[in-house]
Amino acid sequence: MFKMNFLQMRTESALKKNRTLRSSKPYKQAVTVGILFTVEDKQKHTDIKEFIHQLEQDGKKVQVLEYLPEKKENYEFKFDFFTIKDINFWGTLQSATAEKFIQTPFDYLFYIDLRPNPIMLNVLANSKAHCRVGKFMDSQQAYLELMIEQNGTNKGLIETIYNYTKQLR
């Protein structure tokens, strides 16, 4: 699919051109948090909702963006989302919602996918977030400032990310 090839080229270009100052501030001082994930199933949706609740109890302002693949259900329509239809032939993401999310300078941006999704990597590459956090994968080193070694469930990944991030001082 040409669209995905063009998307890959745009992602690599964005990685080189994005001049956002990357840094991590102590978790207690962080105010804004973004959560980025690919829709999979009801359990992941529930895990993300619990994570948001936990972050909000810590006083964080949380924004969520999900990628909704074809033939997946958007549970509750609770979060902002985009689909493959929001990516044009040239691999450009054309979603005002996604663009607003990308331009937000989050203190932390949590990427909750167990396997890298090329569409989400494009969002990460373009993101203005100060500290991007997600699962460790050799191919993702340029996309994340903090990578968590975790083999298990989405819930396990969320808990590990939360525990490590809370320890940042």
Folded structure, characterized:
The chain has 169 residues and is an alpha/beta fold. It has a single domain, classed as Rossmann fold. 37% of the residues lie in helices and 17% in strands. The chain is built from 5 helices and 6 strands; from the N terminus they run αβαββαβαββα. It has helices at 2-17, 42-57, 96-103, 118-126, 154-166; strands at 32-38, 61-67, 80-82, 108-111, 132-135, 146-148. The chain has a 6-stranded parallel beta sheet, sandwiched between helices. β4 (108-111), α4 (118-126) and β5 form a beta-alpha-beta unit. The longest helix has 16 residues, at 2-17. It is globular, with a radius of gyration of 15 Å. The termini are far apart.
Strand content: 15-25%
- Low-pLDDT segments, ≥5 res: none
Number of helices: 5
The helix/strand class is: alpha/beta
Number of strands: 6
CATH topology-level fold name: Rossmann fold
Shape descriptor: globular
pLDDT averaged residue by residue: 94
Main beta sheet = 6 strands, parallel
Domains (count): 1
The residue fraction in helices comes out at 25-40%
